[in-house]
Write a structure and sequence with these properties.
Layout (H helix, E strand, L loop, with lengths): L1 H17 L4 E11 H10 L3 E7 L2 E16 L2 E10 L5 E4 L2 E7 L4 E8 L1 E3 L5 E3 L7 E3 L2 E5 L7 E12 L3 E12 L11
Antiparallel strand pairs: 1-13, 2-3, 3-4, 4-5, 4-6, 6-7, 7-10, 8-9, 11-12, 12-13
Amino acid sequence: MNRWLRAAGCCAALTSLSGAATALAESAVMSVDKATALGFLRAASPYTFEAATAGLRERFTFSNPRELRFEQGAIRLKVDCRGETLGVSAVLEPTLTIQFDHRQNAFVARVQSLPATLGGLGTIHLDRFIQPVIIPSSFSNTFDEGIPGLTMSTVIRDLKVLEDRIEAKVDLVFRKAAPARPAAVSR
């Protein structure tokens, strides 16, 4: 531990002597377990959206996400669904996938397939009306409270749904801002 602290101190000293901020990149693996993923979905609910097809407009609300599973590279769960106009009330089982979208240069979570039967009116494919969730491929945090000027940028290189977790392979880039130079005093 002491050797690490000395090395970190040397790096900080070299950075401050150079006058410019240098970036140090490290690789890491982050994971989200089922309980955490379910906690996120519960915090995001109720989720409301509108579906319009064949002259029919219905407002749907998903709530009470539960029984989350990671299977075959996808996220499966149960949700309660209520429709306002037709009084729809059902338990649905959406399947979500996460893929990289080259057009948006980001990972995107989408409902893969979600048919819902509306009594005598037939079946509506709700997945067509649910907006995908864009997962930022990079984000930054500053450590101004403990280490002024230090920023950690996270870049997601890969994101996969495994059987027991969602796993992200990331690059962590650490940058320390050059110390502020004192203003010249004019006489």
